[in-house]
Each structure stands twice: as structure tokens, then as C-alpha cells.
Amino acid sequence: MTESEYREEDFLQLSGLQHFAFCRRQWALIHVEQQWAENVLTAKGNLFHEKVHDGYSSEKRKDIIISRGMPIHSRTLGISGECDVVEFVRRDTADMGITLPGREGLYVVRPVEYKRGRSKLTDEDRVQLAAQVMCLEEMFLTEIPEACLFYGETRRREHVEITEELKSQCRKLLQEMHQLYARGYTPMVKKTKKCGACSLKEICLPKLEKRKKVTAYISEYMEEEI
């Protein structure tokens, strides 16, 4: 293990990267404070993922081997998790690819992440996908220039180019995640439009963001007593 690698006991959940990109406080409440609450959106999301895979399995369709629920990790990023789907696509004329035990030819690796809703303008889904790609690249010693997001509401795939810019954004977020997790720190409330759909809003209490500072409260209390 090199100095730049994380120990396995220090790995963070890859799925938390989407929470972190969406809202750092939401991520901390779930992954640092171990708090969770369901709402309609999270329940639908869980059911959608259960339909995609139930444990690890694989199948072959023509020149594509489909692996569901594949465990993945990265020692350099310090994360672990699983992919909804990883497709190994045979490309005999490909310039790059990997060999698979008992299989002829070269195979291109392509993760497919399933999401309940529709494509977003923000990057939290793409960042999570990039983290999966970086794990697979490290595990299979290959390059994966493209991956896919499948959205349940539109029933369409979105092909995502895995650029160095997207990877760099992913690394920065993960570095910050590790720092906050090591400190056990939960960021303060910053109320945004996202709060309305968050399943943790009753735990987070974003309406209290304008609460008085403790020193001001004590000062007022002392004045009333006098």
C-alpha cells in the first residue's frame, strides 16, 4: 500500500458522493450522524433499484456480458460500493479493452447507473457515475471514456463522457468528504430550494437557519431575569 492509498477501514460509501454533491449537510446527517428518514421519493428510488438487481448476478446477451450489483472499490479514492449494472461489451477491433477469464476477444467496460427520476442540470448523478468509473479503471487497469445513466421516468439512457474535469471534481469532493468524516463534522444549515424535496428536512430543520446565536439568547435571558 502506498502513502496515497486509504486503508480499507477508512473507506467511505460511494453512494454518499451523490448526497454530498447534493447537500453536504444531508450527507453528514446520514453518514456521520447515522440519521435517515424515508419520504415518497426515497421509497420509490429504493423500489426502482430493487427491480434492477437483487444481489450480485451476471448474464450474457449476444456480445454483452451484464453484471448486476458488482462490488467495487478504490484504494486511491478511499471508497467502496456497488454498481447497479456493469456491461462488458466485446469489441474485437477496439484499441483498448480487457480480457475476461474463459472468454475470447477484448471487452470494453461500461457501468450503467439507474436513477428513479429524469436527467438533471446539476452534476451529482454524473459525479457519482465518474466515481464508479474510477473504481473500475483501478480494479481492471483499463480506461473507461464513457458510462451511462438510465432514468426511470424517461426510460432513456444518458451517455456521459467521463472527462478529466469530471474526475477532478469527483476527487475534490471525496477529499472534502474524508476531511469532514475524520472530524465528525456536520455543516450548518444553508436553506435552498432543494430542502423541500429532502427526506431529512424534519431532522435537518432548515427553518431554524436564522435562529439566534446562543450568546444573544443568553444575553436576552439575563436581561429578562434582571
Feature tags:
single chain; 226 residues; alpha/beta; seven-stranded mixed sheet; 7 helices; 7 strands; globular
Description:
With 226 residues, the chain is of the alpha/beta class. The model is unreliable at 39-48 and 210-218 (pLDDT under 50). The protein has seven helices and seven strands. Helix 1 packs antiparallel against helix 4. A hairpin with a 4-residue loop joins strand 6 (146-151) and strand 7 (156-161). It starts with 11 loop residues before the first strand and ends with a helix. The protein has helices at 16-22, 24-31, 40-52, 124-140, 164-183, 201-204, 214-225; strands at 12-13, 57-61, 64-74, 79-90, 107-115, 146-151, 156-161.
Q: How many E-type strands?
A: 7
Pick out the low-confidence regions.
39-48, 210-218
Q: What structural class do helix, strand and pairing data support?
A: alpha/beta
Largest sheet geometry: 7 strands, mixed
Write a short abstract of this structure:
This protein has 226 residues and is α/β, with parallel strands linked by helices.
Layout: helices, strands, pairs:
Blueprint: E1 12-13, H1 16-22, H2 24-31, H3 40-52, E2 57-61, E3 64-74, E4 79-90, E5 107-115, H4 124-140, E6 146-151, E7 156-161, H5 164-183, H6 201-204, H7 214-225
Helix pairs in contact: 1-2, 1-4, 4-5
